[in-house]
TrEMBL record:
Superkingdom of origin: Bacteria
Residue ranges annotated for the IclR-ED domain, each copy included: 72-252
Protein name: IclR family transcriptional regulator
Keywords noted in UniProt: DNA-binding, Transcription, Transcription regulation
GO process annotations (BP): negative regulation of DNA-templated transcription
Amino acid sequence: MAGNSSAPGATVTSRVLALLYAFDEHHRRLTLTELAGRAGLALPTAHRLVGELVAGGALVRRPSGEYVVGRRLWDLGMVAPVQSGLRETASPFLNDIHAATRATVHLAVRDGMQALYLDRLSGRASVPVVSTIGSRLPLHATGVGKVLLAHAPDEVRAAVLAHLPRITTYTITEPRRLDQQLEKVRREGYATTVEEMSLGACSIAVPIRAAAGDESVVASVGVVVPNLRRDRARLLAALQVAAQGIGRSLTAPR
């Protein structure tokens, strides 16, 4: 259940938010009954509020009767400073990576204990990629996620290491082994995955720092390719140049 907004004293705002927060990475389409249940609302209340959200463009009702998040909410989310500023600044550099590698390119930030994908440019190679712009994926099974996890606060790292769900047969689920990898990421400046999120897909990613010499990592940029055996050095070089450029642009006077 996403919330308990049917409690006495709950405001209309809290009930609307509970309905919106009922959607997540694993619940992209919900029936009215499911929405009411996850939001902790009586069905008539959910029906009335969902109707208003549909009229306002925040939700869309599919022909199947299920509801999905509307474009208006996406547009609103994209004006948040972390999305709009970073995504806009990074865009030309992501295009440079894409032109140089023809691989799928990702820009991500950490959102709690997940990687939030701010941008994605699709590659030409037929590689299974599960990310979409705005999606959230596990930190421990993605290249950009490992970079973000390696530089996350100790308490975040500890919480993630305590729960490492297996996604493919190659997902690292042993806390000690992953912790050793994260130490290597901090030492060498990049992370890799080998079929840990999707079979047939490997990734390499680097951190983006806001200023030269600043150890704080604000985001990660990476690529997804069929394998890393031949082109690792070339891909890493392209990512490092782009990450440095993004970092300089983020701190340049405007």
